[in-house]
Design goal:
Blueprint: E1 7-8, E2 28-29, H1 49-53, H2 62-84, H3 88-99, H4 105-113, H5 115-122, H6 126-138, H7 166-176, H8 184-203, H9 208-219, H10 227-238, H11 246-277, H12 279-282, H13 290-300, H14 307-330, H15 333-345, H16 356-380, H17 385-407
Helix pairs in contact: 2-3, 2-11, 3-6, 6-7, 7-8, 8-9, 10-11, 11-13, 11-14, 13-14, 14-16, 14-17, 15-17
Length: about 400
């Protein structure tokens, strides 16, 4: 990166001179001082390409097709089970289990269409009411918090008698986390349920299975969890339940394994792309975290049909992590200003003044964004390049502002 220093001096060893006549050697360094670089001492990447390529899955095989057909058959069996349940609470409980394991849009639409009739059947059943509310609200249906008014006293507080309904309190706790801004009833529900659930755990009087669910919910509410990761926990917990349905359990395990295999295939392809890009090999100062970036993207969109989003977003996440380290720990302020200008101009000819490592960063982002723009234009007929250009420009300007603050001692 830096040239070898050269030295020049006026020392003529061929001419005879006396010591007093001989001029003192004057050594001058023509090399520029190396800019001061910070380091974050990041740990090495734990997921190199050879390890990722060793991940196995049955994707695109006869076995995978057989599993997919088995899933479709099991889904139909489970839907029949829902409608065979005579008690409303049993139906809702089964729907909730499926919600944590699989896609149930058609069932939820049926519930939403019959909400007025269902509301009459719910009466004073807190557990069932909270289940209906959370399932519908969590899937985009418009449900009012007024559904819980029957459980409040004259002061607007939740009735003290509810503290003895552990399953109901747990369901209300989970429902409170799908609140919209300004929904005071659900804000009170969150405070009320959190306090009572913590007291129940501390007393140690709960059934072990129920205590496991309560502790899990208090750690992180369901609405905040990564669904596919939670599905793994729920499968293990569900198979220990006395009311476990073997058809539901089989569907959950089969679906989990098929989707997991799909994720592995996506990660292998992304790892090939990342390795061929060679950024991590040439720029050793930044975080090489492809697998972690992919996992983060799965948390945003876990559904199988969003594979293309996961591919594009994972690439962008890798570039964002790279730029964060360029601006935070490695780039000089002058070079960062030039890089930000190049991104804003969105012109590959604008990188001549950049250091070589920044040229690599720019071209990697520029090429990936244009490739994404081409795919969207081809498939959807939309030109998203201006949006991508603005997004990268806004990000780099924000990073540059932070770098200036650091250099000013803030």
């Amino acid at each position: 990166l830096f040239g070898t220093p050269s030295f020049t001096g006026n020392v003529n060893i061929l001419r005879r001179t006396t010591i007093s006549e001989r001029p003192s050697p004057r050594i001058r360094c023509n090399a520029q001082a190396a800019p001061s670089r910070r380091t974050a001492n990041y740990q090495p990447n734990l997921w190199p390409d050879d390890r990722i390529q060793s991940l196995t899955s049955s994707s695109a095989t006869v076995e995978d097709k057989r599993k997919t057909k088995g899933i479709d058959d099991l889904k139909e069996d489970v839907r029949k089970l829902i409608y065979e349940k005579k008690e409303l609470e049993d139906q809702l409980q089964l729907v909730d289990h499926l919600q944590q394991l699989d896609d149930i849009d058609d069932v939820l639409r049926c519930i939403y269409g019959s909400l007025e009739d269902i509301n009459k059947l719910l009466k004073d059943d807190l557990h069932a009411t909270a289940l209906v509310f959370r399932l519908l609200r969590d899937n985009g249906f418009d449900v009012s918090e007024d559904l819980f008014n029957r459980f409040r006293d004259e002061k607007g507080d939740f009735k003290a008698s509810l503290q003895h309904e552990t399953k109901g309190i747990l369901s209300l706790y989970e429902a409170s986390y799908v609140a919209k801004e300004g929904e005071l009833v659900l804000d009170r529900a969150m405070d009320f349920t959190t306090m009572h659930l913590k007291c129940l755990v501390e007393k140690g009087s709960l059934d072990p299975r129920l205590r496991e669910h309560v502790a899990h919910a208090l750690e992180i509410p369901l609405h905040w969890r990564m669904q596919r990761s939670h599905a793994r926990w729920f499968i293990e917990a569900y198979q220990r339940e006395a009311t476990m349905n073997p058809v539901v359990l089989e569907l959950a395990k089969l679906d989990f394994n098929v989707v997991q295999g799909m994720y592995k295939g996506e990660l292998r392809e992304l790892s090939k792309w990342w390795t061929n890009l060679e950024l991590a090999q040439k720029l050793s100062f930044f975080r090489d975290r492809l697998t972690e970036n992919f996992l983060w993207t799965v948390g945003c969109a876990f559904e199988p049909q969003f594979w293309e989003y996961r591919e594009i977003q994972t690439k962008e996440n890798c570039f964002i992590a790279m730029l964060d380290d360029v601006y935070d720990i490695y780039g000089t302020l002058n070079a960062l200003e030039l890089f930000t200008e190049a991104i804003e101009r969105w012109d590959a000819n604008a990188i001549d003044q950049l250091p070589d490592y920044m040229k690599l960063c720019f071209l990697a982002i520029f090429n990936a964004a244009n490739e994404t723009g081409y795919r969207v234009m081809k498939e959807k007929g939309l030109d998203i390049i201006p949006c991508l250009r603005k997004a990268w420009t806004d990000l780099c300007k924000a990073f540059l502002l932070e770098a200036k603050w650091y250099n000013q001692g803030h």
